[in-house]
# Entry
Amino acid sequence: MAAMAGMSSFFWATICAGRIGWVFLSTQIQSGWPVLAASGGTMMLAGALYVDYVARHGTWQLWLATFLLGLGCSSSLPCALTMPMEAQIPLTPSVLMCLNLAGTVGEMVAPFLVGLALQQGVYRSLGLGVVGMMVVMGGASSLAWSTSRRVAPATPRTSVVCPISPTTL
# Structure
């Protein structure tokens, strides 16, 4: 049980460190789309490592997968806040509320469903869930990207990945 608590803390620490890193990297990135693709790929790899752990039982796989999952998740909030603006969608209070609500529901429902699956002995559930979510995210992102490109091409910006600049820290 203590190892799982440590792994949970490691996951959240990785997200925190990743978000701090994105503050500095955001000034160098012109578009959030490559960041979203890299994050999805990183989380897909994490899901595959979780699934493979069930067969091999290598503790290093759990720690590496947890690190990759945290790193992939770290850009989700900055991307969620900047991608609508990049697609020429005004970031209104209603849009922010919807983004916050979707994130909150996901953060509540996903662990609950994984916990139910683990309770039933479906130990690959975390890995399969992550891989499944990344497939859905990839499809939704592809649709959003193609739609935003048809409507109005986004103008390049100097800081789109994170609305916070290093000077505000």
Notes: The CA atoms of residues 18 and 74 lie 5 Å apart.
